[in-house]
Queue: 3 jobs
Job 1
Amino acid sequence: MKTLLLTGSNGFLGRNVLSLLRDNYRVLTLDLREADMICNLANNIFVSNERIDIVLHAAGKAHIKPKNESERQAFFDVNYQGTVNLCHSFEQAGKFPESFIFISTVAVYGRETGEIIAEDEPLNCTSPYGQSKIMAETFLTNWCNHNGVKLTILRPSLLAGKNPPGNLGAMIKGIESGQYLTINGGQARKSVLMVQDIARLVPLTANIGGVFNVCSDEHPSFYELESLILNQLKKKTIKKIPFWVASILAKSGDLLGGVIPFNTEKLNKITKPLTFNNEKAKSMLKWQPMSVLNNFEIV
């Protein structure tokens, strides 16, 4: 049985895939706490005599909008420098993995709207999160080529699973508290991926390598996600506001600079489609993604 190193094992993704990975691999975990190897990769390398065959590098920083330069720099410290330090760990040990699977993000494209965006889209993201992931992708491409390591870059869309973080988690909390508002009938579609699919992709990608967008086939609408969450929370309705009212609130938020937690950027994310093309992963890896609408359980 091959040995797989899972970084970020206590994060949302790590917690959801760990038991599934153990069905096929001897798994070693690395995180800031409660792991086989305790290490802050942003500042250190780890030391291990273990032979590691596959790396699933899921450790990273996401889901916050930086408010100052220190918070902005943290993305580069964790997502880029953490990746560099991870690779330096293998260099120091003199033992390189056969395969390296990096969890990147569709945010690298820098798109706020668009439909069925493919892997050949330019990497134009300007946010610290997206830029730090682009830098890590570039570093790994060169490092893996130089050291004969098979590299897979997975660019997941919005991840769904139990107790999700980020925008999906905020939607669940808002609906549960009665503070969530649906706009324009929830028509906009977004690409979503069941987090368990990351574990399913590991054995499919480990010997092939490449860059892949990964998401479900459904690209559910906000209305479909809202309905699913309502049903699981056993709630009946969601408050609705027309688009013109939301536009006024968004412009007010733009003018007041954060005093109102709603602006044009957030309005666009809620009311415009952003979907990605998963055909490359499906055809090359013989992968069939899980249905989000049939498998997403919020708790």
Job 2
Amino acid sequence: MEVLVVGHDQVKDLLPMEECIEVIEGVFRTLARGDVVLPLRQAVWQPDRKGLLGMMPAYLGSPQAIGGKFVTVFPGNSETPFESHQGVVLLFECENGRLQAIVDASSITAIRTAAASGVATRALARGDAHDLAILGSGTQASMHLSSMRAVRNISKVRVWSRNIDHARRFANFSSGKGTPPIEAVESPERAARNADIICTTTGATEPVLKGEWISPGAHVNAVGASVPPYRELDSQAVARSRLYTDRRESLLSEADDFRIPRKEGRITDDHLRGVIGEVLVERVAGRTNDEEITLFKSLGLAVEDLAAAIHVYLEAKAKGLGNWIEFSGVRE
């Protein structure tokens, strides 16, 4: 039995941001219809808490597939040549359970995470939103610049990082490619003030975005904190916002951005307006006026990885890319 292996650089070529946004919107609609099986992720921490192994299985009904992602998460890799997320997405077909593809997870994760924010921004941000703040300067900062430009006419960008040199490097590297001017700033407050869209893409364990900095009418994509003890937003930021997420169960169980203000009594479970797929199928209302603050709390779902891997697999087959290897699975 042959299995297709698709590496990092090929995934980037086969999964352009604009196409991935459409793939992820389709997944969110499928999730809203209930045509998925999606257990909560499992995480195995190293004893020193330096990094973890995440295991994320899923079944997706349309397009049909079963599989999952095995990925390590090492936030400290920002100081190394390595990505913070590394691993593989395994794609199986549902007739005989054959392994079809092994796809690089770093690139899948990077692209589909920002694409999910693109879907949420397209659904929730004001139509005239153009002033973008990015907190963080790593891979997700770059991917979110791409996804935000795909769904809104961005004309101003400010980026903040704990290390101002990293922010300046991001601004210099990302400028001059048809992008609007990018300003590296020395505080998250300066980045966030007056922004129409704010994307938090850090590995923070303490809030980097305060509610008092968020302007009326802004939209926030909170991306970097997907498991405890990571947290990017203070309680006021969450309490002030009209809150949406990718999956209710994941938010309630895994998101300290939500769990901590709930523990403090600032919000209850009812503060969650709905999942983004419910907005897309018009089961739940999205933004209702130009003054309210909308918040998309992204946890990252295995079905997103699975759908992105299906797209990569089909594109790779059609274009003759990737490498085929012999694998077990046929009875001898």
Job 3
Amino acid sequence: MKRLLGRLLQNVRQADKDPSLKRPLHLPVDIAEPSGIFIYSGPGEADVWPALYLSCSLQRAYRNVDLTVVCRIEDSALFSMLDWKPGILTYEGKPTIPPMQPDEPPGPGTLLFHPYLKLDSDAAALIRSSGAGIRISPAANRSPDLNISVRTGADNYPAVLHRMCTALGIPPDTDWVPVIPRQVQEKVADFMAPVSGRTLPYIAMTQRTISILEKHRAEIPLRTVAIAGKNAEIQNIDREMRTAITAGASAVITDDPGLWADARALGVPTVGLDTSGAFIPWSGDLPTTSEHDMIESWAQLLRRGW
């Protein structure tokens, strides 16, 4: 572990002494034997997936340490896809850490993970107020609110998280994939096919991508289900149900950043149209940036099959 820490310190930046800490950091002990672990899950629909993938690795590496996730209230149910559900602190709107119980304060022996490539001002404020002794992130932009920044050399998920864990001496779980709980799958079957309970194959789309395919007279071999967009046929469902509907699709074609992230993280064949640079980087084919390229990517997916 000491040799690994030596290599790690060549790739991290440690902030100057933080007066908020009650005692100095003790590396590598505070990483190898933390008193608790917090994971920050951001306010965007896509943000839950890096937090989920990192949670899986940390659960398995620290089986006897309490893991707590700070996430949007809408995303809290998705953490049931882990081997066991961690502690959950939820927020609405601006990310905050709710008041802690008196016997459970963060402290110098606590790790806090920010699993994103960019650190925004709201996340920095949350990290600063957490009181966690070790605050870790793969974010490229420097901040005094992080005292360990890991340079992974990766530019997409989940590779960023796996490399960060490896650099810290934490064995990453590279095989984990999210699986929708059976009871949620059954709810989706009743919702999608209330009479038979057997959902026919479908392609999940947004209203805009359906319109683009129709305009270009592209082949659509299966039923389409619009689950994002102003006039989407599936609306007013909770986050867990929407995620399960996405997971059950044969393919996804979308211009919605949240639906893109859901499909990629769940391993569904996906074509994305990203005209604003808002899509989270995930392993596999890059999203397209024009209607023409989207149609071509869709045709290539149809030729490959799924």
